[in-house]
Amino acid sequence: MKKQLALLALLHMNVHAQSNYLDLMKKCLLNTIYEDPSHQGQAFNLEARLAGKDWPSLAHTMIGIDGLNNTQFCMEDIIKNNVPGDLVETGVWRGGSVIFMRALLREYNITDRVVWVADSFQGLPTPNPKKYPADTYTFRIMNEVIGISLETVKNNFAKYDLLDGQVKFLQGWFKDTLPTAPIELIALLRLDGDFYESTMDTLTNLYPKLAVGGYIIIDDYEAMKACAQAVHDYRNAHNITDPIEPAGWSIVYWKKTK
Description:
There is one protein chain. Helix 1 (2-30) runs antiparallel to helix 4. The chain has a single domain (2-255), classed as Rossmann fold (3-Layer(aba) Sandwich). It has helices at 2-30, 46-51, 64-80, 96-107, 143-146, 150-159, 174-177, 196-206, 225-237, and strands at residues 86-90, 115-119, 167-171, 186-191, 210-218, 245-246, 252-255. It is of the alpha/beta class. Helices cover 41% and strands 14% of the residues. It contains 9 helices and 7 strands; from the N terminus they run H-H-H-E-H-E-H-H-E-H-E-H-E-H-E-E. Strands 3-2-1-4-5-7-6 form a 7-stranded mixed sheet, with helices on both faces.
């Protein structure tokens, strides 16, 4: 009996330590600890930061606490149900979301999955208004905010001691890198490409690789009309009826059922 109680106590301690680590990761990625101002120079606003409604000047993610919690929920469901495949984000900014994915793999001692980090690492592509008219207004976003270098993102991974062989980078425009990306199967696919073209390139090339039982997360679905239009155009063209669920401000997701 004493051995059983000791084992239960140890398991409880491990779960508690795991929870503390992941909570601390979220606080660090959102920088709610040192409270950096927004990129626009506005004073730190905890409500806006947690909601994902500001552009932090230093924090490594802008998806807010709901976005991080959603990523954790999807990954833990994938792990629980043994859904096969790697983890992918297309459009990573400073790398916060994919850093958190790698942290989750470490915390659950998973060594047979890769985190794929796909980005141009130079900002948004020049829109093609004739081919993708929905993208024209989106280019108003300043590329000096969106365009984060590959070296910076790698350094951000290293700051958390999470830059290793389970992290792989795909540098370039999605239309060039995704068709030939050496990704066989995906369990979690997270899109943050803003544009219609970028969103459609990702869906066309990677959604067929998403395993049944896996999840797709769409960032900027509510904030960028072009992004939402691409999602609905793709779903309609491929008869995807899995319900779209909200996951915080401007983020939606669904579980692939067939």
